[in-house]
Design a protein that fits this description.
The chain is an alpha/beta fold. Helices cover about 40% and strands about 15% of the residues. Strand 2, helix 2 (about 45-60) and strand 3 (about 65-70) form a beta-alpha-beta unit. Helix 1 (about 10-30) runs parallel beside helix 10 (about 265-280), helix 2 (about 45-60) crosses helix 10 and helix 6 packs across helix 7. The longest helix is centred in the first third of the chain and has 23 residues, at about 10-30. The N and C termini lie far apart (about 45 Å). The relative contact order is 0.17. The structure holds NADP nicotinamide-adenine-dinucleotide phosphate.
Length: about 280
């Protein structure tokens, strides 16, 4: 029987509607709307599109967008000064510095300079440490979106075998902590995993986040597993995930498509994180 296809657009719309209500309730207490600062350095066209979408999403739910677009040749010192100003700005609850940064800038140092209380991408070492220790804090948006998708599909990770393909700081590692925190038994695979298929077949929850088109084939999926495809790969056939969707959906119990699965969740969770930061 074909898998249930998890509709990320619909789940993201629910999250946005929930955030809009929270913004409405929170604004009178704050005396202003929650605010998200976006920092876009340089002229990378993809980054410009991502930031524009994030700003539009803010406006839709009533979050104030404070946009900064310093020149591409800004010095490390000047960008650090801009981050320090935003850290101190009381109207700014969240700061998003769009990555990648131009090569002459030290992105780690910029991220590390963010006030962890405003780190709505959840990328600072403090945020990562809190998450690893299962302490409250801001969690990276894409892994949070994966957890929302599982919840929407009625999949409780507790006691289940979960396998993540990918160990990046952005997706794989934070997702490991989230699934472990939700009481799954979690295995993380990477490019040196000896037999990827064998490990993936153990999964009742399988998350692909490798950035390799069709890396996960149907024979790597156990019957009835929930498959979440984080991969976003631009190919001659258009945007595809890391999972061979057409074949996989004949085996899986539930599966996310690409596009329309994890992608829409990332911005929705950024909005949710901004409200969380404002409330804190
Ligand atoms: P990344 O930093 O490049 O990490 C990729 C991970 O996959 C690495 O840990 C790598 O292993 C592992 N990997 C690569 N090839 C593999 C293979 N053949 N077998 C097993 N593991 C393999 O990428 P990322 O930032 O985590 O992103 C992953 C994918 O998700 C990308 O397609 C990205 O575009 C997408 N993404 C989507 C969203 C969204 O909103 N939808 C958000 C973020 C990312 P090693 O560590 O050994 O190199």
């Amino acid at each position: 029987m074909a898998a249930e296809v998890i509709d990320g657009k619909a789940v993201a719309a629910d999250v946005r509607a929930r955030v809009a209500k929270e913004v409405e309730a929170l604004a009178p207490d704050l005396g202003r709307p929650p605010g998200l600062a976006t920092v876009l350095v340089g002229d990378d066209p993809a980054s410009a599109i991502y930031v524009r979408r994030k700003r539009e999403a803010c406006e839709e739910v009533g979050i104030a967008s404070h946009h900064h677009e310093p020149p591409g040749d800004i010095s490390q010192e000047d960008l650090m000064a801009m981050i320090a100003e935003l850290n101190a700005n009381e109207e700014v609850d969240g700061i998003l510095c769009q990555l990648p940064l131009p090569d002459h800038l030290d992105a780690d140092a910029i991220v590390n300079a963010l006030d962890p209380g405003k780190d709505v991408d959840g990328l600072t070492p403090i945020s990562a440490g809190r998450l690893a220790r299962n302490e409250p804090g801001l969690v990276p948006c894409t892994p949070s979106g994966v957890m929302e998708l599982l919840a929407s599909a009625g999949v409780d990770p507790s006691g289940k075998e979960a396998v993540i393909v990918g160990r990046s700081n952005l997706v794989g590692k934070p997702l490991y902590s989230l699934l472990l925190g939700a009481n799954a038994t979690v295995t993380t695979c990477h490019s040196r995993t000896a037999d990827l298929g064998e490990v993936c077949r153990r999964a009742e929850i399988l998350v692909a986040a490798a950035g390799k088109p069709k890396l996960v084939t149907a024979d790597m999926i156990s019957s009835g597993a929930t498959v979440i495809d984080v991969g976003t790969n631009r190919t001659d056939d258009g945007l595809v995930g890391d999972v061979d969707f057409e074949a996989a959906k004949e085996v899986a119990g539930a599966i996310t498509p690409v596009p329309g699965g994890v992608g829409p969740m990332t911005i929705a969770m950024l909005l949710a994180n901004t409200v969380k930061a404002a409330r804190a």
